[in-house]
TrEMBL record:
It catalyses: tRNA(Gln) + L-glutamine + ATP = L-glutaminyl-tRNA(Gln) + AMP + diphosphate. It is an enzyme of class 6 (ligase). Its EC number is 6.1.1.18. Residues 493-566 form the tRNA synthetases class I (E and Q) anti-codon binding domain. This is Glutamine--tRNA ligase. Its main location: cytoplasm. L-glutamine binds at residues 86, 235.
Amino acid sequence: DSLKPSNFLRQVIDRDLAQGTYAGRHWAGHPADAATHQAGQPDPARIRTRFPPEPNGYLHVGHAKSICLNFGLARDYGGVCHMRFDDTNPEKEEQEYVDSIKDAVRWLGFSWDANGTSHLYQASDYFDFMYRAAEYLIQAGLAYVDEQTPEAMRASRGDFGKPGVDSPFRTRSVDENLARLREMRAGKLPDGAAVLRAKIDMASPNINMRDPALYRIKHEAHHHTGDAWCIYPMYTYAHPIEDALENITHSLCTLEFEDQRPFYDWLLDRLREGGLINTPQPRQYEFARLNLTYVITSKRKLKALVDEGHVGGWDDPRMPTIAGLRRRGYTPESLQLFSERIGVSKANGWIDFSILEAALRDDLDPKAARAMAVLDPVKLVIENWGEVMGSDDKLDECTAPVHPHDESRGRRKFMFGRELWIERSDYEETPPKGFFRLFPGNKVRLKYGHVVECIGATRNAATGEIETVRARLVPDTKSGTPGADAVKVKGNISWVGVADGIKAEVRLYDRLFSVAQPDTTEGRDWREELNPESLKVVTAYLEPSLASAKGDEKFQFERHGYFVADRKEHAGGKPVFNRITGLKDSYGK
Ligand code: ATP
Ligand code: MG
Ligand code: MG
């Protein structure tokens, strides 16, 4: 059905489509959908998937995998992916998070409103239905109100290999249960006084089947439904219902939910028998969550990083949030490529951060304009410049391709002169073996410019630090002129003219954690694993072509790697660039 490499999920979908499992579905026409779907109308989508974040934080790179997977499968199979806020928990949910999530999904290149058959879904729209389904379960003898204390309930649940014990409230009559649930709903009971539980099997080997809770009492306003409710559905109860009402076909979740699948099926089977939901039912499939080396993907801990001031905010370029990756300079295409390359698997493991960086390089290499930059500048003075050129002030225009593999993108221009900025590390008084750059007596080419011969350096009398490197021009060696190659050199160094270079703030980001698998060592707090050198800010000089760089524009700084003009703080008069990544893999070394 698609040219993408197959995986176990694609095989399931291929099989379902071949067998017509989901053909001929129609809409149940529940109120939340009335705007787009009429009851009894056929559902034109071949498959439906969903991305269901809880709006309790910013999305991270693990969510990016889930977004690319769910929206990607829907796109590839002529289906629809539902953007759904799983807002069943009134606490910790905020509009800021809702907005940031929508922003992240759109930025990644997906939309939920493109073809008019999909719109924004939210679980809280189904609270009425969920409550009706709860009353139905009571009437069918499949649920009861339990008023044991939370401790007693926990103790009676049993453990692995140890069956649970029935609650004394398990044998209440239907009428008594209904009356009690209605009192819960009416706000007559305090938080924690009672829960509605499914009546399944307290001896089940699967603890999730031992009469799981369906509703709890929480006297708390909800960011969407306000004070309408003081009982809220549990995630395990809500999620299958959300999927069923939305005609989801393939409900993809991470492996932790594998043990919940029997309850997912139990609940939908019972609701189908009661005529509350349509057939065919959605099915749940589990895939391995993304664990990325040097990264923590837990919204709670990412929030702690922000709240405790370890980073500058949710979109700090060191954060693995989608907002952070975006500000760091990652592109939607690189994250999509990454998601495709790592694929989906049935077993948890760690993905090396270098795979993410490689996807970024593969995306940016053909796109990013090139530029020269000097990140640790020291001055190079060409002492015979005036002698050769006729005047010390004379400037000589040099050019270089905007992109080395695409001459149609034109050429950049910059000025060679008596004084140039070069990297401090490009000079050595006593060169180590294999060092071909500047040292007394050696000749190098200043890239796209002239060959110079180094004659030494001057030092600060007090500190001993090198202040200027001294050199002499070798005449008739300018790049691109006849005979320029007659003088052979082994070193070719980048530079920026003192006359036309742009001073800029450059933020050199490194990994946020210094251990490959943060937060996995017993007895060690992840805060102790933060890399104290994750950010170094330098004053650099950039070639003049970068004067017109716009916020969010990406470049390859020759020799140094990929950089982006900071989308928030870069301005024409005050350039700020972030290092996205180096030119070569530096992880796992
Ligand atoms: P966190 O633990 O970071 O809070 P979560 O799973 O609780 O994440 P949700 O908002 O519920 O966050 O997640 C929305 C969707 O994203 C879910 O379907 C979930 O399976 C998926 N998801 C979350 N984290 C990852 C991950 N690391 N890798 C792949 N998918 C993920
Ligand atoms: Mg969750
Ligand atoms: Mg979680």
